[in-house]
Design goal:
four-stranded mixed beta sheet, binds flavin-adenine dinucleotide, alpha+beta, four-stranded antiparallel beta sheet, 12 helices
Length: 402
């Protein structure tokens, strides 16, 4: 193939579009999320963080704007957009408040995603409709003694004829206070090990279901994180999501995609922190100059912007790979690992660029730093991401070409 022909083919395959350039629809969508984040969200961020509570009016607005069912097809009441669009929403919201970012992230990339992929027609009709229009969802896998080792979960499901009886406790469940629909993982056949793990759709109103302690956290404080108690909880058989014993697959596959959402949350944080630092260093005068006139400060801003750009390309690429139906698991793990580190470093540097003002709550950057820390922990710690990347590098089906 001639060189011109080859580059033509590459351009056709990729649509000739740089990773960060958006289609008209994506641009419009991002604009509307930004308008909401700036107009409705920004003024409430500090108070929600202080009181560790999301404003219910904001949650309603997220539903009204179509942010709670982005990928859900229109026939089930959703917006029928692609995964990348959900990523854009999480990024834009997190630029202003990562707590709202994670509300929307869990709803779309974990809960709706699990239902879209594993739900039968009746489950989709019933639950996706509700999740798009009014009811918040949550994803309950972790327990006190099973985090990274998620398949060691101790929650048990016993077949009782037309229903299962579930007993156990889940910990660290995002949206625990607001959610009404939970994807709960329990082992229905412990002798089979992880092959007994089963996913259930559990409604808040089911007998034996209750919400336990709410955590008082370092960051993303407005996002609720709670214990979930299942005490002889009766779950109808028709609420098994996927097949009995296939819950491990449901969890692995949803979390693989969910990680890209956390990457988006992290680049949102990094953008928020860098944006604030750019404004502040332009305004702040020392030695009769704006501090951004000092090369030392300029270089720090340049480092921050470069790191953000790299993280953003990684997150966007992983999302676009997923939408294109191509392998993305390694890229998703890399994107989460890198973007969580970048967000932490960029927010930390923003604090330093604010000087003493960076250390107090009257200014936004200390919160971005607190909020960034979770990126290295949930949906698989950084060590777990490294493990996934290493496994795919060394033992992947397709040899890694350097
Ligand atoms: C704010 C918040 C929200 C959350 N939301 C949810 C949610 O909505 N749903 C849900 O199910 N869970 C949720 N989680 C739980 C989260 O996914 C777990 O905390 C996370 O997976 C880590 O598990 P762990 O806390 O038990 O840590 P551990 O697994 O005990 O890890 C402790 C340390 O050991 C390291 N480690 C463990 N095993 C290995 C290994 N094999 N190799 C190398 N290092 C290792 C880890 O990297 C970590 O540094 C949330 C957690 C938090 C804090």
């Amino acid at each position: 193939m001639s060189r011109t022909k080859m580059s033509q083919t590459i351009i056709e395959q990729h649509g000739g579009r740089p990773l960060t350039s958006l289609s008209e629809d994506e641009e419009m969508f991002r604009g509307s999320v930004r308008e909401f984040a700036e107009g409705e969200l920004r003024s409430r961020v500090e108070e929600m963080d202080e009181h560790a509570k999301l404003d219910p009016a904001l949650i309603k607005q997220c539903f009204d704007l179509g942010l709670m069912g982005i990928e859900t097809p229109e026939e089930y009441g959703g917006a029928g957009a692609n995964f990348f669009t959900a990523i854009l929403a999480v990024e834009e919201l997190s630029r202003v408040d990562p707590s709202v970012g994670v509300l929307v992230d869990v709803q779309n990339t974990l809960v709706n995603n699990a239902l879209l992929r594993w739900g039968n027609e009746e489950q989709k009709k019933k639950y996706l409709q509700q999740l798009s229009s009014a009811r918040v969802g949550a994803y309950a896998l972790s327990e006190a003694n099973s985090g990274s080792d998620a398949f060691a979960l101790q929650t048990r499901a016993v077949d009782a004829g037309d229903h299962f009886v579930i007993n156990g406790r889940k910990l660290w469940i995002t949206n625990g206070i607001e959610a009404e629909i939970f994807i709960v993982f329990a082992n229905a056949n412990p002798e089979a090990g992880y092959r007994g793990i089963t996913a259930f759709i559990v409604e808040k109103g089911f007998d034996g279901f209750s919400v336990g302690k709410k955590e008082n956290k370092l960051g993303i404080r407005a996002s609720s994180t709670t214990e979930i108690i299942l005490d002889d909880c009766r779950v109808p058989k028709e609420n098994v999501l996927g097949e009995v014993g296939k819950g491990y697959k449901v969890s692995i596959e949803t979390l693989n995609e969910g990680r890209i959402g956390i990457g988006a949350q992290m680049i949102g944080i990094a953008r928020g922190a860098l944006g604030a630092a750019l404004l502040y260093t332009a305004e702040r005068k020392q030695f009769d100059k704006s501090v951004n006139e000092f090369q030392g400060v300029q270089f720090q801003l340049a480092e921050m912007a470069t790191e953000l750009e790299a993280a953003r390309l990684m997150v966007y690429n992983a999302a676009r790979l997923k939408d294109a139906g191509q392998p993305f698991v390694k890229e998703a793990a890399m994107a989460k690992l890198f973007s969580s580190r970048a967000a932490e470093r960029i927010a930390s540097r923003a604090i330093e660029l604010y000087g003493g003002y960076g250390f107090v709550k009257d200014y936004p950057v200390e919160k971005f730093w607190r909020d960034s820390k979770i990126g290295a922990i949930y949906e698989g710690t950084s060590n777990m991401q490294l493990q996934t990347i290493a496994k795919l590098l060394i033992g992947g089906k397709q040899p890694f070409v350097v």
